[in-house]
């Protein structure tokens, strides 16, 4: 017998999104792959302080416990940083460094860089560090394949603009083959090219889900949203331009969407909490 549609409310969600969440909840094997910062966790000045919204955290933990449900985090953070702030279990799949680092489960990870790439990343940091140190509030986050320069703590917009211009110029001078990404209050430099779309495709290849839900808020999430198939569901968090057809307003609304997905999947799989 097919379960009756879920008529319970999901405040703040578009009815079309609710219908899509209910649809995707019914597939036998579901991959829920989500960006972390700005999607599950509010943006904060210190990335080490970021933690998932409590309601989102609870919904993800419950989803991961359901049969046929894989929950993964996909981030520009290093794998180590993502595992820490995401409070990820050892077996949880993770994609870090924009697809360069992939962990499919405990003890099953794909390395990000070789020794030559590590040397290039070190040379890059040596060149950019004086530029960053000269701007109060700016700081460098090391990554396995490069680095990210954060400007959220810089008060003067003109200083941020000048910093970004100087970083681009210095990076091009030291290594013309870098991958450069401008994000929200951050510029990232990598010695190897990969995207969140590459990381998402690696997860799909490994787990072979019947459908994928991906959600993200930043420009770097567009690669993963563009990699989704016709039966998948992409959600944009926030108001920025996106290839995603559906969106939610903010982190709290994303948590509500995950709660809706959980209720529907529990009902359709017969799971009981």
Descriptive report:
The structure is a single chain. This protein is an alpha/beta fold. The protein has two domains: 15-112 and 195-269, Rossmann fold; 115-190, Alpha-Beta Plaits, CATH 3.30.70. It is 37% helix and 21% strand. The chain has eight helices and twelve strands. The strands form two sheets. Strands 5-4-3-2-1-10-11-12 form an eight-stranded mixed β-sheet, sandwiched between helices. A four-stranded antiparallel β-sheet has the order 6-7-9-8, with helices on one face. The longest helix has 19 residues, at 115-133. The protein is globular. The mean pLDDT is 92. It catalyses: alpha,alpha-trehalose 6-phosphate + H2O = alpha,alpha-trehalose + phosphate.
Describe what is shown at a glance.
Its cofactor is Mg(2+). By secondary structure, this protein is an alpha/beta fold. Helix content is 37%, strand content 21%.
Keywords:
273 residues; alpha/beta; Rossmann fold; Alpha-Beta Plaits; 2 domains; eight-stranded mixed β-sheet; four-stranded antiparallel β-sheet; 8 helices; 12 strands; globular
